[in-house]
């Protein structure tokens, strides 16, 4: 690349700084003309006029082309001078005038940074602009503009230096430009601040006279106001307070609110201490806050920075900062106090943590002797001085941390950058160290290497203190300041995941002669541990602590203590009673520690203790992984068998075949859990008679154990199993007994289960208001528990469907389906899809209903879901019938009838008979269809569960078709014939005697009287 200079004689340089010779005056003038146009095309005619004026050469075009050729040759790259229809243009990427203008136009707010920019800009000038072509007409406008901009930059630089309190001498410029009022204002102010008030007044008087004599003008109002302030000796004209603060090299990111707060605190309190972990940015925040206070002239006598990191006596460092010489035999501290006694100044004491006690003593003495003094300190722990205001500096919030890292590393924000920021806890120093590695490795690679962060983050800024050049050095500084008890507690705390409470800290960190609570308090004070009630370590501090734990040979011991503590916590978690919510919250809070403990020694007891917690939280994946892993560690046979039982149940819940249970290894409680839980999660599938046997065994075992919760859970399960027999009396009896027990126990989950058994019964009887109220209460309780809620949503969707509110029903079912998929709850997903299919068919979308249900038939066969198969086949058969496909409808309904007979559920048989009636009526077999309707009605009546009106639309539709095709007498005869054939469809034990009504009922769980409905024939329109 070639660089060009016009701020002085025309010059060209190569990258290595070597000058490029451009021969012949006209060629140089051509180059200057092209540079003056800033890369824009210049026509040939314009160039000829600029170079030769009114005396062009005979062949002007040819001569110009020759000069262009010479210029290209001199520059060494023909592509630097291009020709287009618009003319010639110079490709100049680096021109000193362009850089000058860019620097001048930045307008940076920070005075020291702005002064540096202006110094850099003015240093580019080597003499008058375009010095060797100034006599050519094209150059003069450009020269005038650049010279004016140069003078403005000189004026601004003088103003900025005045603002910084630096001496300024613009006398030579004033002599050269005596009528420039802005320059004159700087001159007057600089003279006044130098103690030359008379000369300042004389400078104003001279300007006023010149303006009047030469231009007939008066000074501007601003200059006249300055003159008035001179006369009354306005204190604001005094030099700004003395500052010993270093200039900021980079902008402070994400601390605007903190800056405002610290500034307000220093204005209100005489001692403000910024605390926080190493690298969090205490020093940067303190310095930026001090600069703001200095600019606001809050401290007329200045601000002094006292850097204590390398000091051994704080009084020596303070004395040096406030210019008190240690050249006397008199004690230094009183002389420092005397020097500050009459001042209004701010001391910034940086890095006090290794000298806390002597710093505290010195600060207390200085504040007592100097009422106008304020102190802003930074330390990893408070100074502990009366009147101290402590402000904890937090890590950067993630958006600010991401902005800092991406800015420092020069990369785009993205997930890898966010991961780095999270894993480095938003600590600015760690992010600065990471930025150097991002530039070398890339964000994705660095994010993947942070498990080995102390080897990776080893390259900081060379001008940083040694303790800030690597991540390890940053934490080493804090570690070296600790006593042995604090080191012991810190390294043992590091074994925890996501922090711990005081109980866990004392259990894991216990050591004779060590007061864990006192050491913990000291670590909190030193900003190495976040304050309780939950004590957390930054991830980098925890990684450092684990290294120290291994070095001390304590790792295995502490891991064993950790696993033991959290096993005990899980085993005493009262998840079956009134404290259910509180314990769920506590285990949620400890989830990271529990997961860690499951990878420790002998995790089988812990896995078994957590099984019910995982169930209530719907964490089936975590449960299966953890139980399977714990089983591989082995343990007592009863414990292994119990873990296999829980694992089998969770496996069935996600719709997969379960493993074998070594039942002989189970103790009495284990057998009770196995009989109840495995039937509970699978009650609607498989061998219903086997479920009945299992629940009876569970009831007996729980009773023998005196386990009231287990007995209530088994009763509720027995109530739900009774639906398969259509035994409404048993559903009510066991459901109400279970609900009463769970209410007494204060168990929300148990109340949900019991209410669902009673809601199923109410729905069967057509008592939809009761069923809806029960299910709304279920949903509220499930939300309190944080339970997934898919089943409750599906059931409310069914209530909405029966009420004819299809939009609400679809919404409930779709939400239930989504939750079930997220939680891998296969059975609940099936129920939600079934609800969507029912809604689709009722709204006339028959193909959609079939498409929703048909994929589930294979899964239902795998899990022996005979009841579900019967229902799905009935629904898809109805859909085929409604779209006019009699053959498909009949085939499906026959398969469904066979499945219904296999379940032994009278209501399933009745639905299958109604489905067959529909298919037969469409096929023209009207008498058989009418007989099937009569048989279905008799089956429903036999168990006291006639078809409710809201579910009779299929029967009404089929009846209407038969009424149109048959004589009334023929229909009635066939219908009654079907009723008499009841015994062909259901066992006699399930039937009510001829003419009998269902037994009288009491109150439902809400205190409403049940309305017993007599067995009745379905309505027969037109007959």
Automatic annotation (TrEMBL):
SUPFAM superfamilies with a match to the protein in the record: C-terminal effector domain of the bipartite response regulators, P-loop containing nucleoside triphosphate hydrolases, TPR-like
DNA-binding residues: 1-92
Origin: domain of life: Bacteria
Disordered: annotated span: 991-1023
InterPro entries referenced in this protein's UniProt entry, alphabetically: BTAD (IPR005158), OmpR/PhoB-type_DNA-bd (IPR001867), P-loop_NTPase (IPR027417), Sig_transdc_resp-reg_C-effctor (IPR016032), TPR-like_helical_dom_sf (IPR011990), WH-like_DNA-bd_sf (IPR036388)
Domain OmpR/PhoB-type: 1-92
Keyword tags: DNA-binding
CDD domains: BTAD
Family: Belongs to the AfsR/DnrI/RedD regulatory family.
Protein name (Swiss-Prot/TrEMBL): BTAD domain-containing putative transcriptional regulator
Source organism: Nonomuraea longicatena
């Amino acid at each position: 690349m070639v660089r060009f200079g016009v701020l002085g004689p025309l010059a060209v340089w190569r990258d290595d700084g070597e000058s490029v010779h451009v021969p012949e005056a006209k060629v140089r003038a051509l180059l200057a003309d092209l540079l003056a146009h800033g890369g824009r095309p210049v026509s040939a005619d314009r160039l000829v006029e600029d170079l030769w004026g009114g005396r062009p050469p005979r062949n002007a075009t040819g001569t110009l082309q020759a000069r262009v050729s010479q210029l290209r040759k001199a520059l060494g790259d023909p592509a630097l001078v291009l020709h287009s229809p618009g003319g010639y243009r110079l490709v100049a990427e680096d021109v000193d005038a362009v850089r000058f203008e860019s620097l001048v136009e930045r307008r940076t707010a920070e005075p020291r940074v702005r002064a540096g920019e202006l110094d850099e800009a003015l240093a580019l000038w080597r003499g008058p602009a375009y010095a060797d072509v100034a006599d050519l007409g094209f150059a003069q406008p450009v020269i005038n503009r650049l010279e004016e901009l140069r003078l403005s930059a000189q004026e601004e630089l003088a103003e900025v230096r005045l603002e910084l309190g630096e001496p300024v001498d613009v006398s030579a410029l004033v002599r050269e430009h005596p009528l420039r009022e802005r320059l004159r204002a700087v001159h007057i102010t600089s003279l006044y601040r130098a103690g030359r008030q008379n000369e300042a007044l004389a400078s104003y008087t001279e300007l006023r006279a010149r303006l009047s004599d030469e231009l007939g003008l008066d000074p501007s109002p601003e200059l006249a106001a300055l003159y008035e302030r001179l006369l009354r000796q306005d204190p604001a004209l005094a030099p700004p307070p003395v500052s010993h603060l270093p200039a900021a090299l980079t902008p402070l990111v994400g601390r605007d609110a903190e800056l405002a707060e610290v500034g307000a605190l220093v204005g209100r309190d005489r001692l403000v201490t910024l605390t926080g972990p190493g690298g969090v940015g205490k020093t940067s925040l303190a310095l930026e806050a001090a600069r703001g206070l200095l600019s606001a002239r809050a401290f007329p006598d200045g601000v002094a920075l006292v850097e204590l990191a390398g000091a051994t006596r704080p009084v020596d460092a303070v004395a040096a900062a406030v210019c008190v010489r240690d050249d006397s035999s008199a004690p230094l501290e009183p002389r420092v106090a005397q020097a500050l006694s009459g001042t209004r100044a701010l001391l910034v004491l940086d890095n006090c943590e290794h000298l806390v006690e002597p710093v505290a003593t010195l600060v207390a003495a200085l504040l007592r002797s100097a009422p106008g003094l304020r102190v802003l300190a930074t330390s990893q722990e408070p100074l502990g001085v009366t009147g101290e205001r402590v402000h904890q500096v937090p890590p950067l919030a993630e958006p600010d941390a991401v902005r800092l890292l991406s800015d420092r590393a020069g990369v785009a924000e993205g997930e890898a950058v966010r991961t780095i920021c999270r894993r480095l806890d938003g600590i600015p120093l760690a992010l600065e160290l990471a930025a150097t590695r991002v530039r070398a490795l890339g964000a994705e690679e660095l994010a993947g290497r942070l498990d080995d962060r102390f080897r990776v983050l080893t390259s900081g800024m060379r001008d940083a203190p040694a303790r800030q050049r690597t991540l390890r050095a940053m934490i080493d500084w804090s570690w070296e300041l600790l006593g042995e008890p604090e080191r012991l507690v810190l390294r043992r705390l590091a074994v925890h995941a996501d922090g711990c409470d005081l109980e866990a800290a004392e259990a894991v960190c216990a050591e004779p002669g060590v007061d864990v609570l006192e050491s913990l308090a000291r670590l909190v004070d030193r900003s190495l541990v976040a304050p309780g009630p939950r004590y957390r370590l930054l991830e980098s501090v925890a990684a450092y602590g684990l290294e120290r734990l291994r070095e001390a040979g304590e790792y295995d011991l502490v891991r064993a203590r950790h696993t033991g503590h959290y096993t005990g916590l899980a085993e005493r978690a009262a998840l079956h009673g009134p404290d259910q919510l509180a314990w769920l919250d506590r285990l949620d809070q400890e989830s990271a520690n529990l997961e860690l403990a499951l990878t420790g020694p002998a995790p089988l007891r812990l896995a078994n203790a957590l099984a019910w917690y995982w169930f209530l939280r719907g964490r089936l994946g975590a449960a299966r992984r953890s139980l399977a892993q714990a089983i591989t560690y082995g343990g007592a046979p009863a414990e292994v068998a119990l873990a296999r039982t829980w694992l089998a149940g969770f496996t069935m819940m996600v719709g997969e075949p379960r493993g074998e249970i070594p039942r002989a290894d189970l103790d009495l409680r284990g057998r009770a859990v196995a009989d109840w839980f495995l039937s509970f999660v699978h009650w609607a599938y498989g061998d219903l008679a086997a479920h009945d046997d299992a629940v009876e065994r569970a009831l007996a075992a729980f009773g023998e154990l005196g386990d009231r919760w287990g007995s209530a859970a088994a009763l509720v399960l027995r109530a739900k199993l009774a639906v398969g027999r259509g035994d409404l009396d048993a559903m009510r009896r066991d459901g109400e007994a279970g609900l009463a027990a769970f209410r007494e126990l204060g168990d929300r989950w148990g109340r949900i289960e019991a209410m669902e058994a009673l809601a199923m019964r109410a729905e069967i009887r057509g008592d939809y208001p009761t069923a809806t109220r029960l299910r709304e209460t279920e949903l509220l309780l499930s939300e309190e528990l944080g339970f997934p809620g898919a089943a409750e949503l599906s059931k409310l969707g069914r209530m909405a469907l029966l009420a004819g509110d299809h939009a609400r029903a679809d919404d409930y079912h779709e939400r239930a389906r989504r939750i079930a998929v997220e939680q891998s709850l296969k059975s609940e997903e099936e129920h939600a899809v079934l609800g969507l299919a029912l809604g689709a068919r009722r709204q006339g979308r028959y193909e959609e209903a079939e498409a929703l249900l048909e994929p589930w038939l294979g899964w239902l066969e795998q899990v022996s879901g005979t009841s579900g198969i019967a229902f799905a086949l009935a629904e898809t058969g109805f859909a085929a019938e409604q779209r006019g496909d009699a053959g498909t409808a009949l085939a499906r309904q026959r398969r469904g009838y066979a499945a219904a007979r296999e379940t032994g559920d009278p209501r399933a048989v009745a639905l299958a008979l109604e489905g067959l009636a529909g298919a037969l009526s469409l096929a023209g077999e009207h008498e058989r269809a009418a007989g099937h309707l009569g048989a279905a009605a008799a089956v429903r009546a036999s168990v006291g569960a006639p078809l409710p009106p809201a579910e009779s639309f299929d029967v009404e539709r089929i009846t209407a078709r038969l009424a149109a095709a048959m004589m009334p007498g023929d229909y009635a005869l066939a219908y009654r014939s079907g009723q008499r054939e009841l015994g062909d469809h259901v066992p006699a034990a399930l039937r009510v005697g001829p003419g009998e009504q269902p037994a009288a009922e009491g109150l439902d769980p809400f205190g409403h009287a049940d309305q017993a409905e007599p067995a009745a024939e379905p309505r027969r329109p037109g007959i």
